[in-house]
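Regression check, PMV case 323:
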Amino acid sequence: MSRARAYTNIALVKYWGKRDPQQMLPFNSSLSLTLDQFYTETSVTFVDDVADQFYLDGEVQPVSAKITHVIDLVRAQSGLQKAALIRSDNHVPNAAGLASSASAFAALALAASTAAGLKLSRRELSILARHGSGSASRSIYGGFVVWHAGQDDQSSFAEPAIANTEQVDFPIAILAVLVDQSQKKVSSSAGMAASVATSPFYPVWARTAEAAIPKMTAAIAAKAVDKIGALAETNAMQMHATTLSADPPFTYFEPETLQIWEKAREIRRKGLNCYVTLDAGPNPKLICQLQDVEKIIHEFQKEFPNLTFTSCRPGPGAYLVNE
Ligand code: PMV
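Current build output:
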C-alpha cells in the first residue's frame, strides 16, 4: 500500500481549453501557486480482484473514467495486471471551484505509481496526473508552478516557475472566500469545451494567456505581490469573458461574486493589495499580503457577515505519507 498527500493549487494564469481532450493537452500554458490549506490523501493497493474500487471519505463511489484512465496508465507502465483499491480522503470543499480534482489526481498519481513499484520522476508524475485533471499536473510541486502547454504527451508537463525552487520567501497570502458550497453547475470540462467551440474570443484568450506567463514569472521573481495580483485578476476576468461570450452564454459568477470583486476594488482604493481570481465556481480567492489578511477580512465582514474565509500560504508539493 502507498499513501500520498497533495495540496490544491490556485491558477494565477488559468488553464481554460483542451487542444486535445484525449491526451489532456491545453491550448495555453498556465501558472499556479500551491496552497497549504486544502489537500487530498489517497492510498492505493493493488489486489487480486476483478475490478478497481474507489472509496471517498469512507464511502464507496463509482470509479470514474478519469480514475480508470490514470490507473490503466500505471498498469501499462508497470506491467502489473491487478485491480486497484483506492481510498481517498478529501480535505477540500467538494466541487465548489476550489479545484479538488487537482489535489485528488496529484495524490492518486503518486500513490498509484508508487504502489505499482514505479519510481517516476516528478516530471513523469506531473504528466501522469495531467491525464486525470489538467490542473493536477501542477499540484505535484510546491510554490509557484508553470505547466507548459507542450506539443504532445511528453512535452506537456509542469515544473517550478522559478528554476529549482519551490520555496516562496515573500509574504503572499491567498484568502479563499466561501460564498456557496453547492456543486458547480457547469463542470470545468464542459465549460472549457463550450468556450473553445463557441466563443469568438477564444483564440484571443489562448494567445493572451500564453503571453501572460513571462509577465507573471517576472512579477514572481520580483516578489511583487501587487503585480502578481493585478496580472492574475486580469487573466481570470479574461477567462470568464470566454464563458460570457460563448453561445449560449454562461457564467460561474453568482451575485456575491461580483459584490466581492467590487469590495476588493474598494479596498485597493484604500491602499491595500487585494486582487480577485475565480475558477469554475462562484468562490473567489483574494491575492494579498500576509500582513493585510486580518484587515481585509475585517473590511469584508463589515459588509458581508456571512462569508467564511480561509487564509492560505504557499504549500508543498505532493509527498508520500508513512503508513
Ligand atoms: O483541471 P481541471 O479540469 O479541473 O480544470 C481547471 C480549470 C481552472 O481551475 C478553471 C483553471 C486552472 O488552471 O486551474
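Comparison notes: The first strand starts at residue 2 and ends at 13. The pocket of PMV is lined by residues 11, 14-16, 30, 99, 101, 133-135, 188-189, 279-280 (CB under 6 Å). No diff flagged against the previous build.
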